[in-house]
Amino acid sequence: MKQYSEEELQEALDCIANGTPIKQTAREYGIPKSDGAADLQRLSPDQEKHLASWIIAQQALGLPPTHAQAFIRRNPVIKVLRARAIDSKRVNGASVEVIRSWFQRLEQPDIQEIKPANRYNMDEAGVLEGIGSNGLVLGSTENRSIRKKQPGSKAWTSFIECISALGRTIPPLVIFKGKTVQQQWFPLNLGPFKDWQFTATENGWITDETAIEWLEKVFIPNTAPEDPSEYRLLVVDGHGSHTATDFMYLCFRHRIRLLFLPPHTSHVLQPLDLAVFSPLKTAYRKVLGNVNQFSNSTVIGKRYFLQCYQKARSEALSGQNIRSGWRAAGLWPVSMAKPLLSPLVVGNTSYTTSDPAKTEPEGSSRTFCTPRNIFRGSDIIWSTPRKSVEFKEQVRVANLLEENTVTQRQLFRKVRKAFDEKDVQVAALERQVEALQAQLETARPRKRRKVDLSPNSRFATIEDIQRTQMAIGEAEITSDEESDSEISEAGSCIVVAVKTS
């Protein structure tokens, strides 16, 4: 086969670009036709520039096209992104005009005088008890796709969370799907759930009656200001349970000012949606994944769901996350610019393509080196390292000593490697212990009975659950739990034993 240079190939491509047929050009230059056609660009540069603009516009509209690898290589301004589902009403609901109009309410004197400690945001979210998440995972290059095991049932459970502008949270309300709250849904150790409230509804979501009960039993007593004359602000969405007459009148009686978010804007204006619920669900799925990693049979039901949610909640509902949510929404400190600059607001996305050469940050190819200071051994005060991080820091300092030798460095490397191996073993054993505890808790037979509530309350407290657990006594021990909470009446039965030969 005839060899050809890169210059000859470029000349052949120029001829093709000027209109010479590919077959004729390949014959004249002695270049295989497939090589010339492979480098052809069907669209002109201007056409591809317009196509890149169209892709960015489609992304802003929530309709991103699928990628073409060659096109992406020629247009560095475009890259493959992970698409997240969002309701079409939300895409069009959060507009600049809507946000400007709504922020005028925050400028009213009766709202401005409310202290940040008395400003709260309340919302409801839900999860499937045993369902993790789909996403990118690591696997063999020989496989095109991979399966991911889900460790549990698909029963729906929702929860109501409420946070303050200063980073405080109040006890949650957990809403199970069912007719009544059952004591077998709860672990034996109820300490981590102190002050939590529990209830059950037919669909696992909040109802008008549940919202009023939450206001009376949870929000009002847990957010009472030191000065009873001070007002509280409660930011909520426009759910029907929040706009019910009884709910609004109860707020009026207790000096609570309601501020309703505009329809379909919670993803831009609600602190819980912006910085709390996402890390909360991520942490919950992470806990599920840790259990499933070392277990083949643990079923995630209501009992272990509560334990997983409690761990995830303690991690995600931090003061930093809560304050970040209020700041991102522009609700505290009050700043209309925060939501207006959000890429999720209609009209904020630029549809023009920039010069790919300008997309690279200046000086990106520069390498910065940290200066290495030289120490003397007598200048360092050594202490026994208690953690792997402390030991690594001592190794780093020891490597800078003037009198350091090759033997010393090798010794430190070996000891450091041993520390790292032990850390890995300890972490793996901790995960295994958690998984075994989950299996033990799930396999332990529990006595089944609904929780006896106070006639003046719809919610079950930890005290109610403990009282029921102590009172069940001689009740029949049955299987773990049911996905719905319908408990049939116990009747008499005849057990027939068949003797096999």
UniProtKB/TrEMBL annotation:
<dbReference type="GO" id="GO:0003677">
    <property type="term" value="F:DNA binding"/>
</dbReference>
<protein>
    <submittedName>
        <fullName>Transposase</fullName>
    </submittedName>
</protein>
<feature type="coiled-coil region">
    <location>
        <begin position="419"/>
        <end position="446"/>
    </location>
</feature>
<dbReference type="InterPro" id="IPR009057">
    <property type="entry name" value="Homeodomain-like_sf"/>
</dbReference>
<keyword id="KW-0175">Coiled coil</keyword>
<dbReference type="GO" id="GO:0005634">
    <property type="term" value="C:nucleus"/>
</dbReference>
<dbReference type="InterPro" id="IPR004875">
    <property type="entry name" value="DDE_SF_endonuclease_dom"/>
</dbReference>
<dbReference type="Pfam" id="PF05225">
    <property type="entry name" value="HTH_psq"/>
</dbReference>
<dbReference type="InterPro" id="IPR036397">
    <property type="entry name" value="RNaseH_sf"/>
</dbReference>
<feature type="domain" description="HTH psq-type">
    <location>
        <begin position="5"/>
        <end position="34"/>
    </location>
</feature>
<feature type="domain" description="DDE-1">
    <location>
        <begin position="154"/>
        <end position="326"/>
    </location>
</feature>
<dbReference type="InterPro" id="IPR050863">
    <property type="entry name" value="CenT-Element_Derived"/>
</dbReference>
<dbReference type="InterPro" id="IPR007889">
    <property type="entry name" value="HTH_Psq"/>
</dbReference>
<dbReference type="Pfam" id="PF03184">
    <property type="entry name" value="DDE_1"/>
</dbReference>
